Amino acid sequence: MSKNIEAEKKVPRAVAARLASMKARKDSGLVGRTAIVPVWLNRADHLRVHAACHAAAGLWNRSVVWLRGQWEAGETPGKEDVRRFVTSLPAEDRPFHAHTAQAVAYDLWDAVATSRANRALRLNARAPWREKKYRPLSFTAGFGWRVTPEGRLALSLGRGRGRIVLSLPEVTSRNGQPVPPKDWGEIRLCWDRNARSWSLHISYSAPGEVLPTPAEGRPTVTIAIDEGIINPMTLAAKMPDGRVQVKVLNGRQGRSAKRYRNKVVARLTSRMFRCKNGSRKHRRLMAAKKKVEAKTERRLHDFDHQVSAKAEKFTREVHATWTEHHRETSEPDTVVGVRLVAGDVRGIEKNTNKKRRASRSTRQQWSRGQQEDYLQYKTGLKLEHINEAHSSQTCPECSTRTKVRGREYICKNTRCGFRCHRDAVGGVNILTLADNDGTYVLDPDLRVEVTYRRSQTSWSPLQRSLHAYHQQVLGRASGKTRREERRSAQNRATRTRTTVSGVAVDRAAIPDDITTRQGAGRAPARVA
Question: At residue 14, does pLDDT exceed 90?
Answer without folding.
Answer: no
